[in-house]
Design a protein that fits this description.
453 residues; alpha/beta; 6-stranded parallel sheet; 3-stranded antiparallel sheet; 45% helix
Length: 453
């Protein structure tokens, strides 16, 4: 087989994905093609990959190219993880420029005005990649890690409905970080399903495998106390700066004086998270910085200091991630999914982003949803979630129109639709300034947004 990694010049994506693939016995003998437009960065990852193959005597063929058409020829699986421009410089602009116009957006990456501009920038090059897939390897499966996940997936599958395109997000893995502790059982003993929109998703069911009994009531009873510890907000930044140690966090901070013997964990970015638990009686699968991008009243409830701390940590961590090394720890779920397709396993995957074809009956079919799926030789088949919680479903519906207009704005290049996508956004409570704000952003990001007229 031929597996293509697009965006492989990123050490984080390229090296970690190679490490995942190299663990697989199923794909032994396959060609792995690394593709990136940044030739020097690509060469570095390529050389590290070759050295790893040689030192571990693994039977894989590794190639590298900056030519997308050459990379995609005869591809079976394509994995995309790309960004455009200076990631954090543009993110800062997405986040702060709308705030200058009085729009209280939380994070500026996936939802709200910032998420819209992010989608307008990054989706066209992904559409171009997918157009080449349709031309050169139309039977290939395409897995995408880039954000904003729902906007990208909705737009790609609207233009190429026959493409085997799946959005993947690791947020659902956060459940395994704390559910075993909350319930005092292993994750293997839990059968969980979550669903919603990407970064706006909740656990919808949970039960114990050994007894078949419902586990959700136990989660809701025990989770509030588990997340009750209030964080010392200087921890994540000061601890990292002082020790040079970058903690592994998913909304979880290591205590500032951890090296003095403290072992407690401090939960940040979870005030809005707790409101969802209290008011909707549901457990979110992600944190305030993501949930808050889609909810009109989130500004009042979110942990802004925790969000800013995590952003500072995240930016710092990536700036330090210059280590080019491949390890054999499984980083993502992509390889088990590819193995499931190849071997016709028929196993259930926790969360995939695909077009809604009745999987969430209360939501329209014109938008991508995040649902569990069965993975087999038939591909990635979403699972229908009946009786989705009405209250949270209403929050989801509030945002589906935004995704509809965002996709149309990208496909048509219409400035009017960009304006409309903002005016129907539940996070936006301004009107008169919107035209000016859009023109300023179009000017500041002209290199990527010149197609908007």
């Amino acid at each position: 087989m031929k597996i293509v990694l697009i965006g492989a010049g990123s050490s984080q994506f390229g090296c970690s994905t190679l490490g995942d693939i190299f663990q697989s016995k199923v794909f032994t003998g396959s060609e792995i093609c690394l593709m990136d437009i940044d030739g020097p960065s690509l060469d570095k990852v390529y050389k590290v990959g070759l050295e790893f193959l040689e030192s571990h005597n693994l039977e894989y063929s590794l190639t590298a190219t900056t030519d997308i058409k050459k990379a995609l020829k005869n591809a079976c699986y394509v994995i995309i993880s790309i960004e455009v421009g200076d990631r954090f410089q543009l993110w800062d602009l997405d986040w702060t420029l709308p705030q200058q116009y009085g729009i209280k957006q939380i994070y500026g990456e996936n939802g709200g005005p910032g998420g819209l501009f992010h989608a307008l920038r990054i989706t066209p090059p992904i559409l171009e990649i997918c157009g080449n897939v349709m031309e050169l390897c139309p039977q290939a499966y395409v897995f995408c890690y880039s954000n904003p996940m729902t906007s990208i997936t909705t737009t790609v599958l609207r233009k190429y409905p026959e493409l085997k395109f799946v959005g993947l997000c690791h947020e659902v893995a956060s459940l395994s970080r704390y559910l075993p502790s909350i319930l005092n059982t292993s994750m293997d003993n839990l059968e969980c399903r979550s669903a919603g929109l990407n970064h706006l998703s909740v656990l919808v069911s949970a039960k114990y495998r050994n007894s078949g009994k419902d586990a959700y009531s136990d989660i809701m009873e025990k989770a509030p106390a588990f997340f009750a510890v209030e964080p010392g907000y200087s921890d994540i930044w000061e601890y990292t700066q002082r020790t040079g140690h970058i903690p592994d966090t998913e909304g979880m901070l290591e205590r500032y004086d951890l090296d003095k013997g403290e072992s407690d964990h401090l939960w940040s970015d979870r005030k809005l998270f707790k409101v969802i638990m209290e008011k909707f009686h549901l457990l979110p699968i992600t944190v305030d910085s993501h949930l808050g991008e889609y909810i009109s009243w989130a500004w009042d409830a979110a942990d802004h200091k925790g969000i800013l701390d995590f952003y500072s940590f995240y930016r710092f961590a990536l700036s330090q991630d210059n280590r080019l090394e491949i390890d054999t720890n499984l980083h993502e779920r992509i390889i088990p999914i590819m193995e499931g397709i190849t071997l016709d396993k028929g196993h259930e995957e926790a969360a995939v982003n695909i077009m809604n074809k009745g999987f969430l009956p209360d939501l329209p079919d014109f938008v991508a949803v995040e649902v569990p799926a069965v993975i087999s030789a038939k591909g990635v088949e979403g699972i229908i979630i009946n009786d989705y919680p009405k209250g949270f479903g209403a929050l989801l519906r509030n945002y589906t129109g935004v995704y509809d207009l965002t996709a149309e704005a990208i496909l048509t290049g219409s400035r009017d639709l960009v304006i409309q996508a903002l005016l129907v956004n539940p996070v936006v409570d301004k009107c008169i300034c919107i035209d000016e704000m859009v023109d300023v952003m179009l000017d500041r990001q002209r290199k990527w947004l010149s197609y908007i007229k």
